[in-house]
What does this fold into?
Amino acid sequence: MSTDANFNTEFRAETTALYAVGLTFILLRLGSRIRKLGLSRLQPDDWFMAQNLLWYTLLYVSANKVIFGGGSNFMTQEDIDNLTPESRATRIAGSKWVLVSEESMVLTIWSCKVCMLFIYRRLTQGLKELKIVNAIFIYILVGFVAVQIALFTNCRPFSGYWSVPPISSECLFRLCS
It folds into this structure.
């Protein structure tokens, strides 16, 4: 990717710091819950947070792979004119990593939403507000399905997401603006 050294240094520092903070909170939460309940008595929100660790790690890795792996199919006309077979292969791989980063971002965010809703469900157990929490669960589920449909049907054919040069503007993801 055609980024300057200063951006690369800042990007790596910021993503690593944010990943470390997120990882710390996730591990502290899981450690606390395991200590309090034991591994066999963990609740659904704990398991969602545990699998969120996977999505968050994948998001961190994929974002850095795009920036430091040669870019994606988001290119200027000059980049398109200067494509070589090697740079095309690198950009195809980068474009696939962009798709992975988009999906891992969606899964990270929605896992956190579901985790919070399980916590709210536990807090409102036996109260009339539980119906509201259950309605929000349905709303979140419908939203997740809609986002997945949009992500996987926006670009046709699906391989257009990693076509270099891009076959359509609908097949472009901009990781960073």
